[in-house]
Amino acid sequence: MEAPNGLKARNARLILAAAVVAVALLLVGGGFAVATLMHDDAGSPPPAAGGPSAGTPTPKTSTGGAGPVTPETGSKVKLDKPTGQKDGVSTGFRNSPMGAISAVAHFWEEYAWLDDEKASQQLTAVASKDSPGYVDKHVSEVRAMREGVGLPPSGGIPADINFTTSVTAVRVTSVKAPGVPLGDVMQIWVAYDRFATGPNGGRDENPLRDEMTDFIVKWQDGAWKFTDEYIDKRSFPRSYEATSPYARADGWTQVVHAN
Question: What is the value of pTM for the model shown?
Answer without folding.
Answer: 0.79
